[in-house]
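User: Some background: our group keeps a shared notebook of sequences we're curious about, and every so often someone picks one and asks for a predicted structure to add to the entry. Today it's my turn. The entry only has the sequence so far, pasted here. Could you supply the structure so I can complete it?
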Amino acid sequence: MSATVQELIENGQTALGIELGSTRIKAVLIGPDHEVLATGAHSWENQIVDGLWSYSLSAVKEGLCDAYATLVAQVKERYGVVPTTYGSLGISAMMHGYLAFDADGKQLAPFRTWRNTNTGRAAAELIDTFHFNIPLRWSIAHLHQAVIDEETHVPQIASINTLSGWVHEQLTGRHVLGIGDASGMFPIDSVAGDFDASMVTSYDELVAPRHLPWRLSDLLPTVLSAGEDAGVLTEEGALLLDPTGTLRPGIAMCPPEGDAGTGMVATNSVAQRTGNISCGTSVFLMIVLEKALKRLHTEVDMVTTPDGSPVAMVHSNNGSSELDEWVGMFVEFAKLAGMDMKVSDVYDLLYFNALKGDADGAGLLAYNTLSAEPIMGLEGGRPLFTHTPDATFTLANAFRVQLMSVFAAVRIGLDILADEGVGLDKVFAHGGLFKTPGVAQKILADSLGIAASVGETAGEGGAWGIAVLAQFMKSRGEDETLPEYLDSKVFANVQASVIDADPDDAKAYEKFLERFKAALPAVQAAADNS
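Assistant: Of course. Here's the predicted structure to add to the notebook entry:
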């Protein structure tokens, strides 16, 4: 086995993916069958610069080198060889944000990440201009806010980029961006596979009275879809990744992508009418649409898959954090009772018992709203647990409604989309909430009224996803689409657990949700009086 892998590495029959996340830069090497051969990582943190969250570009370069060096060290340890080339290479990173450069490539302002929310006035103006939702974190919101604030660097701008696009440009010399990442810069026309031309024109008209020396189309990168040629690794790029000079230039590179797109790839959720939901501190539901939405919905973010299909993203600020606090009380109780129990065992006991509870909550209500929840109209956060006097107040029901509340906000978002005729056939679930087999998965299926799948996905996440996209560029068949490639060559033998919605329990969740929404004013009142 090792000898075979060694030959694959020596012959460049591998694909390398690198993703720059918010706390870690990760590198993943995969073979022709998309299996993970080696990994490398570098930890980093953002800083406040001039009142805004940022990473320095020197830290980006240092992190890339370190992540790559740790991967090479693992390859050498495992297979006795140091890679000099790869079949293909891809870069991914956290989406959105603002990187601005002059004509000589000089950075004009510190990198402003997706975390910054200082763009409220700009986003409101753009929404009014485009009649399209522009979230605060989008690149165009950051650019326009700089224009509104008359920042001194604005007239000097020659190009803007996202983090993945900038790294790719350093490696290849090409100012290009994958369509998924591009969709977090500026609205995309999925039919044309490019930035929406009418909105680009509208923006130029909006800022025309300011007499700026550039047009928006001059600043934006060229948009590419998955599988397209995005250039090759240059000599300068090879030395940036590997200062030892061992890595050779000439490696084909796929379009740089954002972490949302690579997450879709990693969960096989790029085909129309499919979706994935990630549950952690917050909850993201991504739905691949058959066509763009007709109306403006400020509750829904519009992005695309790496091959350009429109995607509606419903985001809930609140996930499983409140539920974790409840479990923590029972961990404390177990210690008080003299029981030495693993925390994971406490989760399993409470979660499995929750399935014995009433599917409508039996008069109990729980709100996991530690922070504001715009999609539910909550401007402030206050967790609440309440019940009617005649409620069936049991431990099973108490935890069942806690689990049910995790999915309430995204279900409300899904109902908004349903009014537009959006269809969703299945959803792939991932995140710590689903570690206890079958529990949160069943409640998710009942809450959305569709089948929920939890399966064996690459534990390396987005870094694996961009490596797969790099391999897709090299290995795809003629006219083979990305969904076809993932189904037949990547996920064909992946085992998954699928739970269908129970019709009776789905109706019971509807009953719970009506009571949940009716009591939302009490949550807002509690937040207002805190």
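Suggested note for the entry: The two ends are 62 Å apart (CA to CA). The longest helix spans residues 57-79.
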